[in-house]
Specification:
The protein is mainly beta. The chain contains two helices and nine strands. Strands 1, 2, 3, 4, 5, 6, 7, 8 and 9 form a nine-stranded antiparallel beta sheet that branches.
Length: 182
C-alpha cells in the first residue's frame, strides 16, 4: 500500500503528464484517477496510473499514464462467462511505449525488466509505439508494457474491462483499484 505522500506525488505527476498531452480533467475526473501499484509497493518500477471514462457491458475507454521507465506487469485478460476476454487497443498519445506480447522474441529488447521480478516476465515480442501509433491486443494474450525515458500517455479502447479477473504472471500481484480520493 502506498503512503499518502507517495499517492500525492503520483497524482501530481499524473496530472502533469495529462496536461502535457492536452488532456483536461474536471475536478471529479482528478478524483477518479487510479494509482495502481498492484500491491507490490514499488510504483516507480511497476505500476500504472489511469482514469476510466466509461466501462459498461459493451465497451471501455481509459487513459493510461506511465512514468519514465515504469512497467505495467505481465498479464492477460481471460474469458469471463460467455465473453472471450478483453480485446484492447493501445494508442500512444505521448512518449514511447514498449509493448511486449506473445510471439517471436525480439533481439536487442529495449525495455529493462524490473529488478527482482525478472522471473515473472515471459513474453518478449516487442512492439514500439510512438505518438499516433496503435496496436490491438487479442483476448487472452499475455502482455506487458513499459514507458520510455519521458514517460507516456496511452489511450486504451477495449471491450468491457474486468480488471478483477486479469491473470498476472507474478503471483504477488493484487489488482485492487484504488482511486485518488481517500
Amino acid at each position: 500500500m502506498l503512503s499518502a505522500n507517495e499517492r500525492k506525488q503520483a497524482l501530481e505527476l499524473t496530472e502533469a503528464l495529462f496536461a502535457r498531452v492536452g488532456i483536461v480533467l474536471t475536478p471529479d475526473g482528478v478524483q477518479n484517477i487510479e494509482i495502481a501499484d498492484f500491491g507490490l509497493g514499488e510504483l516507480e518500477k511497476q505500476g500504472l496510473e489511469l482514469i476510466t471514462y466509461v466501462n459498461n457491458e459493451r465497451y471501455c475507454a481509459k487513459e493510461l499514464v506511465l512514468f519514465a521507465g515504469q512497467t505495467c506487469p505481465e498479464h492477460k485478460h481471460p474469458p469471463v462467462g460467455g465473453d472471450p476476454g478483453k480485446m484492447e487497443t493501445f494508442r500512444c498519445r505521448s512518449g514511447k511505449v514498449l509493448l511486449y506480447v506473445e510471439g517471436v522474441r525480439t533481439p536487442g529488447m529495449q525495455a529493462k525488466l524490473p529488478e527482482g521480478s525478472e522471473a515473472y516476465y515471459t513474453v518478449f515480442h516487442e512492439i514500439e509505439l510512438n505518438p499516433g501509433e496503435q496496436y490491438t491486443i487479442p483476448p487472452g494474450t499475455l502482455h506487458w508494457f513499459q514507458a520510455g525515458g519521458d514517460g507516456a500517455v496511452v489511450s486504451e479502447f477495449s471491450s468491457t474491462s474486468r480488471d478483477e479477473y486479469d491473470l498476472f504472471t507474478d503471483p504477488r500481484i493484487k489488482r485492487v483499484p484504488e482511486v485518488a480520493a481517500e
